[in-house]
Structures are given as structure tokens and as C-alpha cells.
# Entry
Amino acid sequence: MTDLKDHGKLGSRDREILKDVILTYILSADPVSSRSVAKHGKLGLSAASIRNVMADLEDWGYLMQPHTSAGRVPTAAAYHLFIGSMMEARAVPAKERRYIQENLKGGAADELMGSASHLLSELSSQMGIVVTPAMGETVLKAVDFIPVSGRKVLCIVVSSTGFIDNKVIETEEEIPREELTRISNHLTESFGGHTLREIRERLVRQMVEERAQMDRVLARTIELARSGFSVGETPGVVVDGTSMLLSKPELSDVQRVRRMFEAFADKARLVKILSQCIQGGGVRVLIGEDSELTSELDFSVVATAYAVGDRPLGTLGILGPSRMDYEKIIPLVNFLGETLSRALAEAFSGEPPERR
Amino acid sequence: MTDLKDHGKLGSRDREILKDVILTYILSADPVSSRSVAKHGKLGLSAASIRNVMADLEDWGYLMQPHTSAGRVPTAAAYHLFIGSMMEARAVPAKERRYIQENLKGGAADELMGSASHLLSELSSQMGIVVTPAMGETVLKAVDFIPVSGRKVLCIVVSSTGFIDNKVIETEEEIPREELTRISNHLTESFGGHTLREIRERLVRQMVEERAQMDRVLARTIELARSGFSVGETPGVVVDGTSMLLSKPELSDVQRVRRMFEAFADKARLVKILSQCIQGGGVRVLIGEDSELTSELDFSVVATAYAVGDRPLGTLGILGPSRMDYEKIIPLVNFLGETLSRALAEAFSGEPPERR
DNA sequence: GTTAGCACTCTCATGCTGAGAGTGCTAGTT
DNA sequence: AACTAGCACTCTCAGCATGAGAGTGCTAAC
# Structure
């Protein structure tokens, strides 16, 4: 708004006070008054002096008052500054670590997604979100074709990380069971280890090149693979703990609750927001202004990517009012990202990857 | 509350007035006054006479007033009476029929569940719920075992109606890929057409009887089948249109919204409520008193079972404030149940079943 | 059996008031 | 020059009274 450039101008006392305000506000949800900072704060200043500083902080765009003579509330800029350079992350307590690891052990990939989402919401008291990989980007482990009836075939695709997707496709002619089995074995063996997208592209190229001398089996193989592998182009979203948000004071108004739900009904938007976090490692935080959804509601997103090896699969994170305990939540999201990555890798390779 | 036994005592005029009150209330959500019935109603009675009747109806437990000098509101008993003997069901309009049929055509079983739930909520403006079959009760179409790593095997079970469930199981020793394929073929061929529960039971019996002379392959088969077929014992729930409910005037209080969400977080309870409807054909309506959830919130459930052949698979229905348009919603739920059943049967048999 | 009339009750929106909280400013202190 | 005490000012919020409006119940007349 005003001079955000002079971060540097913030003296150490200004920073100390801003930090105090933010921490208090995160805890209380009420606008913070100069008096309460003076009392609670470590620096032995009077309320009046604090007031001066807070007025400056407001000029610089870090604080705002809901109305004259309410206390002051941190802005998005303040949170950014707080997270970037004044926060002291609190490591995830051993107890929670153990709890997470126990609940994220073994199981099929889709169960892992559910557990991760639930853990996020439970441990952060916010809404937990996990974006599952778009099948097209995953590495093929196995294919199976099951004749359903007539020319309909159920195609089941298993990714190397244990995700499963399926689709009913309709072939041009009825294909006998044995041939389906042969084809699926063939595809599994020759294409395992590549992404579905790669495979599709390769098959299409092959089809164009060899159109002339294709035999029937090859033609059928290509037909099946082309339609079958178009499975799950769009990633899914697993959400948990919506009711957590309802107890937050910022959602005491039904209108806001409604707007929130309408926003969430559009899963594609959630995916888009979360996906902003997939690039680059580590945890990313989106506050207010960064997206339509969060700004309208004064919400924030803390998210990170999970991956197997160097292949990013999806994102996971939490969503809640901007006023949240970043010192706890950022390490939590980080840890969950790592643990989920490891759990998936484990399912893949069979052995736990070496720990650093 | 008071003499509900003398339903018979309701004269035709009483019934007419009660019906008017219910219809008006469903439309307006406001307590309805004697005056409005007198004006709007067909019978040319004065407000005073209507008042007398309404006082009687209150004594008999069909109406209640939120407070003296508000209008009156129908009780659960009134709704039951209305649905049982005074409602005129409005057939689903042809346009909606077509819309439903188009959206419930083909596709894999899990997509069908999602579509059905969405259609329910969209067309009723209430929350749509579909309970998916517990895998244990479905008929086996095919099994597949895919080696994951070491002794871990991914077991994929396909039901004859196209539902898929999967599970990672850990075997006692590593089993080579070819043997897994042989075993899955064997199981698929010899047990297709039976329910998972039956198969498990039969295998366990077999294991006990032949314990002595079991060869290794048989032992492994039984091991795999036992653990693999324990898949999906509990049914799933697909919910859609939660935000629809938020616009209802009865949820203008955040506390209620919160209680509702907390109730819904417990999917098991939803399943239990909906499952009360699975027995007996047709549509069932639960109003208020019938369950903890609905009574606390003044909600109702309209649900029916869907089935393939004579085998009931799951239930589907809507949930919303008791004040809902039963004349429209009951036929809607009924039609959706039939259409979903047919769609699933079609996927199963390949041909649309004969129509009556 | 029906209706008109009227007193009564209850809710709800409105406006007022005083208490409380918090600020901004100024003048005085260190 | 930095800090603080004091004070006037502003804004919110809860409580209260008030009056309009809606709806009922009852009674007496048709």
C-alpha cells in the first residue's frame, strides 16, 4: 500500500513490537491494543510509546485497524515478513512425529492420501488438502484389461507408486479374454517404467509410421492403450477437516461460510492454488492477496510438494484463516510432505530409503 | 405427543387445512398464519374458523407454534401424514429424466456414484448422498495380483458391477510374477459369480479340511485370497451439494451449521441412517424423530435402495431440512434409484435390461 | 356452525444511553 | 531527543425502553 520498500527501516524495536502483535493476534483473534503489548511484551515500554510505533507500522502497511479505537491487526505483508525473517519455527514434537509415521505406514496409495489429509487437519486444526497425482504423469507399473461385456473393456492402470485408476472403454470389435491378457502382459512388460503420457505419444507415433504393415494384434494393442491410458488426466483432491474451520471466529458469519463452501466445491480451483506450490522445494505460503480465494476470505495456504525420487507427484497442505500458527504449521506441513514422499517411495522400492 | 391415534378423526376440512399449511410452509419457511390460509386457501372460510381448526390440529400434535402469536409450523407427524396420504407426487419432468439418463450412462461404477450424488443434489437443491456397496457383498468378476516389491502384493478386486477395490497385502514369502498371474486366473475362473464373503468362507473351510495334503500353490492361493478378499468391508459414502444446505434459512445459525458438519464427518453414521432404507423396496422417508442426526437438526432423509437384479447394492438419497418439497423429491429419488440400478445392470450384462 | 371484533401476547426493529476500550495528541519529564 | 502521563475524542457494544406489527384466543352475535 504505502512504502513497503523500506523494510530496512524497521528498527529492531519496531520488529519486536510487530512480532508481538502478530503472535498475540494469532493466539487471541482479537485486534491487539498498545496496552496489551506494553503489558505482555518483554521490552519495558509504556503503552504510549508502543502506540507511536504501531502508528508507524500502520503507515508502512504492516498493521491496520478495523475501525478507530479498535486494536490493530496484522496485514498480509506483516505475515510475509514474519514468516520470512522473524519467525522461529518449532520443530514437530517427537510425539506427533511418531503419530504421523505410524499412520502413514504401508497401505495402498489412496489410503495414504486419505490419512495424510486427515493428519494435516487433525494436527493443525485447519483444513487439510492433498492433491493426488494426475495419472498421466505417473510411471506405469502394470495394466490390466478385463472384459466387461460385449465390446466393453475395463482398463485398470497401476502406477509404480501404487495409485490405481480405471476406465471403461469400448473397442471396435469384441476381443477375446486371452488376447486381452496377452496384450496387457505385453504392455506391462514393454512399457513399465515410463509415464502414461510418454507411452501414449510413442504409440501414436508408432501407429502413424507403421500404419501400413500393422497386424491386427498390434492395432488392437494400440487401440486399447490409447484409450485406456487417457485415464485420470486431472488430479484429484482429498479434503479433510472442513468442520475445523467452522469453529474459527473468522467464520462466525454464515455468508462467509457459504462463500467458502462454494469456492471449495470447485475442486479445480483448489488444485490450481495448491499447484502454485509444486515448483521449487520446501514449503510455500500463500497469504491473502495471492489468490482470489484466499484474499476474499482472508485465508492462507501452507503447502509443499511430495515426490518420489526427483519426480514431483502432487502437493499437500493446509488452508485456514491467515491468522494461524505458522511457527507450528510450516514445520508440520514440511514434515508431512517428507513423510508422505518416503511412504510412497517405500511402497515403490520395497525397502525404506536410506535416511540421512 | 397427544392423541395421535385418532387420525381417523381428521375431517376432510381439517385435512385440507393441514395440507394447505404444510404446502405453504414448505414454500415460505415462515410459520403460517390462519389469515394466510384463509386468503390463499380454496375453501372460503374466515380466518377465525381456520384458527379453530388449527388449534385442534395443534392439540392433536400436527402443528406447533414457535411462540404464542407466531404462525404455526408442521410437526414430523404432519409430514408423515402428508407423505402417507395427502401428497400428490409430481412425476419427474421429461426434461429432468433425460438429463439424468444422459448423465448416468456408461462410465465406470465409481464415476456413476459421483454423478448420481451430484444429480441428486442438483435437482433437489438438497444434499445428495450415495452409499457405495460394501465390497464383501458384491459378486466377483475378476482378481488381479500385482507384485509390488519384495513380499508385498497389490491385490485388485473387480466386482461384476464394475466396482474396484484394492489393497496391499504382505505374503509370507516372495511369490514370482508368473505364479501370481496363474493364481489370479485360477481364482477369477473358479470363483467368478460368487460374493467375496462366500469365497472367503469357502476357502477357509477348504483350508481346514485339507490342511494335511495342501500343496504349496494351493496354500499360497488361499493365503492371497483370504487377505485380498477382505477388501472394503465397510461401504463408502459419496456426498455432494453440501453448500446447497447452507442457503436454507434453517441453517442461518453458524452453531447449527457446525453441528451438522460434525455429524457428517462421521460417515459411519450416515451409512447407518441411509441403510435403514435398504430393506423393502420403494422410497423411505425418515423425518426428525427417526434418528439422532435428523431430530436434532430438524432434518429429513429421503432414500431408496439401488440394486442389480434382486441383489441390493447400496442406498441413495437426499438429506435436508424437513421442510422440503416431498412431492417432487420422492419421485426424483425413486427415479434416480431405478436409473442407477439400470445403469449398473447395463454395465454388468452389456445390454440394457428389458423395460416394462 | 360460522364469523366479526377485540384484547392480549409475543417478536422485532429502532433509537437512545452509558460504559468501556483504544487511540492520537500534547505537554511535561528524563 | 526519546519517553511517558494525561486527557479528550471516537467508536463499539450491551442493555433498555418503545412502538409497530403480526397472530392468536375468546366471546358474543349471526
In short: Residues 31, 33-35, 47-48, 51-52, 54-55, 65, 68-71 of chain A lie near DNA strand C (CB under 10 Å from a C1'). The longest strand of chain A covers residues 311-321.
